[in-house]
Amino acid sequence: MRSTRFDVRHQPPPLTPMEDPHLADRLKRTIATGVPQQRAYEGPGQTDDGWRVQDYDGVAGGETRIQPVTAQAIDHPTPLPFGGLISGEDGHFHDPGQRPRKGGPAASGAADHDHPVHLDPLACAHVNAEKRWCGVRPGQGPGIGTLAGMSTAPVRVRFAPSPTGMFHVGGARSALYNWAVARQSGGKFVLRIEDTDAARNKPEWIDGIISALASIGISETDSDFEGPFFQSQNADRHREAAQQLYAEGKAYYCDCTREQLQERTGSQHLGYDGFCRDRGLGYAEGRALRFRTPDEGETVVVDLIRGEPAFPNSAIEDFVIARGDGSPVFLIANVVDDLDEGITEVIRGEEHLSNTPKQQLLWEALGAKPPVWAHLPVIVNEKRQKLSKRRDKVALEDYLAEGYLPEAMANYLMLLGWGPGDDLEIRPYEELEQMFRVSDVNTSPAFFDVKKLTAFNGEYIRALPEEKFIEACQRWLREPYATWRPEAFDTGVFAQLAPLAQTRIAVLSEITKYVDWVFLDDAPEDEASWTKAMKPGAEEIIKDARERYAAATWDADSLKTVLEEVAAAHGLKLGKAQAPVRVAVTGRTVGLPLFESLEVLGRERTLARLDAALAKLAG
In angstroms, rounded to a whole number, what is the distance separating the alpha carbons of residues 468 and 462? Predict the structure, then answer.
């Protein structure tokens, strides 16, 4: 796969953010990895004899508008991404530390003023970070520092859950972000099951992870999906890597006990003191293998969300990479798996940020360039406490079982820490996927607002075609949710009520209480509703309504007119008069439109329920 080329002799209109919305992310990844990332835009003018020079205005600040220019048209030095300059006088890319001048430093095969300039903007971003320049004239090859003509590396992200419980909504958010990055870049989404905790792993949890991912649109049948891979099946490689570090002097064996460490340091809270670093211990049962961390300097983590947090190496203890029984710990297993699976970007929760400098040191010790990191903000509840499965409803399966639509869940989860930049939050996932930029994710905690999620879900329910809504409700029209006799259910009757219910429910499980009254033999009993509606005067209203309904034309408009007349006779507004009738017939003060409900229930059953209410009031 070649890098994108641009010809200065063509002048297409400026690109808009929608045409190239992820430029800043790709430039940052190029800086971090040293490998140019494939650009999504394949515009006109991509010939082999010249590339169009472009001024990426304000890319470092997140802008995405791109203004094409030519070398001939530049009368003054023009900024390129991250501070570089292209000078129209000599047509060269200049190091930001250099002062541009006429006849500036010539590249090998430097371009003249009236010749097209070969510049790969992503290459320029990279060489700028390396404090070099790039430039070339047609037919003379790339100048020093260019990455022109190099192959682009495919983006490979991974989602690595442990099969120890239900699928957490935070994990679902991470998976969706990884999926978006993979798909918008033409990369791969790798599912790795970190199943090394044999005591807590269950096969059904693995199946649950795969089905939960599929429910929000991440399917193992998709060509962008790889896996699942199982960490337990790579145990030999984990051991090999640990032994490699030992053989190279980057790790050492330690036989210190916790008690001995506390005795030396005088505290149970201080980290390991490096006591065994130079004792030259070999392997023996019970001896842990520790990684030898650098004594000086700092480990800088390139994070697309959090910038470049730096961790002093002196504050990182010599951490364990293999236990006393020889089994590798999570840190090295995680790194080795990422290496073997070719992971280029690690997008995960911020709770893993503290582990990142250790993992980055392991990547480097194993002779590999670390991936680009992105640590997502923690998700909190209404008390701004981190979501906890012991305290909060956090399982994606629970929300789906309650009747939240997968599409609504995916939409809402995408907005936990990120937004599309306008006021339109409810939009198809495919659109959110194209708009998503991991560098725009917020660092502040994301509030999991169940009320907002429910409102989202209601909007999605109302947008369903009627037949899809009826189909989606079927689960809640059968046992164990349905309270009526199975033979009492009538699909035709439900089809009549479905449009009325669709505009009122926010989660699908609410459908049961909105329609149960029509399938039950008698009106459901709700004491709170009865007490609220059956106030003095209610009995007389029901009597008058019952008398007039016995001879009324049986359609919603006629039934409404009759009750309006009853209300007027009692000096009441319609709302006050219909409350006791509604509770007598449907059992509740809140429900579907009353007169359409009476029409569906029919005259005989309506009159029977009014009679039953009068009997209860008289008794």
Answer: 11
Q: Which residues pair with 312 in a beta bridge?
A: 298
Q: What are phi and psi of 504, to 5 degrees?
A: -115, -25
8 A C-beta contact, residue 498 and residue 473? yes
CA 335, CA 326: separation in Å to the nearest integer? 17
Amino acid identity for residue 167 in this structure: F
User: Phi, psi (5° rounding) for residue 93?
Assistant: -85, 130
C-alpha span between 124 and 584 (Å, rounded): 77
Supply 236's token pair: 């030999």
DSSP 542-579: HHHHHHHHTTS--SHHHHHHHHHHHHHHTT--HHHHHH
Sole residue written with tokens 């470092």: 60
Note the pLDDT tens digit of each residue in 133-149: 233 223 333 332 222 22
pLDDT, tens digit (0-9, with 9 covering 90-100), for 179-227: 999 999 899 999 999 998 877 888 889 999 999 999 999 999 999 999 9
Longest dimension (CA), the chain: 106
**Annotated catalytic residue 452:** no
Q: Pick the catalytic residue: 131, 389, 535, 616?
A: 389
- For residues 542 and 584, give the distance between their C-alpha atoms in angstroms, rounded to a whole number: 8
User: Length of the chain, please?
Assistant: 619
Write out the H or E segment, with its range, that includes residue 434.
helix 429-435
How many Å apart are CA 535 and CA 185, to the nearest integer? 65
**Separation between Cα atoms, residue 594 and residue 579, nearest integer Å:** 9
Q: Is 283 exposed, middle or buried (0-12, 13-18, 19+ CB in 10 A)?
A: exposed
